[in-house]
Structure formats: C-alpha cells, structure tokens
Design a protein that fits this description.
There is one protein chain. By secondary structure, the protein is α/β, with parallel strands linked by helices. It has a single domain, classed as Phosphoglycerate mutase-like (Rossmann fold, 3-Layer(aba) Sandwich). The protein is 30% helix and 19% strand. The protein has four helices and six strands. Strands 3-2-4-1-5-6 form a six-stranded mixed beta sheet. Helix 2 links the parallel strand 2 and strand 3. Helix 1 runs parallel beside helix 2. It is globular. The N and C termini lie far apart (36 Å).
Length: 165
C-alpha cells in the first residue's frame, strides 16, 4: 500500500503586476494559513518519504514550511520544474516513475491539476481544493508503476476555512 499527499500552495499575492506568475510570493493570508496547515499535517502524522514541489516561488515557500514543520530535511525537497503548469497525465507519469523505495509521496503544487488528480485517483469529485489545502489518498497499489484511475481512497481533505469560526 502506497500513500499520496497533495498540498496546494498557500495563497499568493497579485500586488506586483510586474512579477511573473512563477515569481509571485505568498500574501498575508497565505502567510497566516500556511503554518496552521503545516501543523495539522504534523497532527495527522503525514510524514512523507519524498517531498516534490513545483519550482514556483509560492509552491517552494509552501514546501519549505511544510518540511520544517514535519522535520523533513529541506535539502531533500525535490524542486520539480515540471510540476508548474503540469497536466494530469504528466503528473501521473511522474508518480509512476518514482522508486518503490518510497511508501509515501507528498506533492506541493497547483490547481486545477491537484484537484483533477484527486478525482482521477479516488473517483470522488473534489468540488473545491483551496489554497493551503491538503488531500491525503491511500492507494491500493504496491508499486508506483501500478498507479491508475480509481486506485485510491480519499482519507483526508482539509483546508484553512474548515477551521475558521
């Protein structure tokens, strides 16, 4: 059995119109929500064997804070340029190519691909996967090569607004 945790980057800023989409930093809400969600990852015990992140600034910032909360070595974060604007099929191929040495993968990336991936793997329609959202999927596979449509069960869907009063 393999596990996959999908983390959508924290909310990013659109304040500087000169910045490319790739270089946008987190905004105040993202900076507020991210530590709380990272702490919940710790509480849920979602400790990955491998953490892959999009190269976009907002995703890498998210991955670094998540890694810090989980005591995952930041130098072991795989900065994967392919995860920026990745298509579902490409992400599935990337996952299928991972070493079976890894039991639990964590991906920090972007919508709509993460939302589509959750739906593809579980068959469950994810109506909204907001920024700083976490989706954890148990996969009924023994090898990453076996990753296929509907091979997973959604075990957790969490995001900041679920915890606001």
């Amino acid at each position: 059995m393999k596990k996959l945790t999908l983390v959508r980057h924290a909310k990013s800023s659109w304040d500087d119109p000169e910045l490319s989409d790739f270089d946008r930093p987190l905004n105040k809400r993202g900076q507020r929500d991210l530590p709380l969600m990272a702490e919940r990852l710790v509480e849920y015990g979602l400790q990955p064997d491998l953490l892959l992140s999009s190269s976009a600034l907002r995703a890498l910032t998210t991955a670094e804070q998540v890694a810090q909360a989980l005591n995952y070595p930041q130098e072991r974060i795989i900065d994967e340029p392919e995860l920026y604007h990745v298509r579902l099929e490409t992400l599935i191929n990337l996952l299928q190519g991972q070493s079976d040495h890894y039991r639990h993968l964590m991906i920090v990336g972007h919508n709509p691909t993460l939302e589509l991936t959750g739906h593809y793997l579980t068959g469950e329609r994810i109506l909204k996967f907001p920024t700083s959202g976490v989706m954890h999927i148990a996969l009924s596979i023994t090898s990453w090569e076996e990753l296929a449509e509907a091979c997973g069960t959604l075990e957790l869907l969490d995001y900041p607004k679920l915890h606001q009063e």
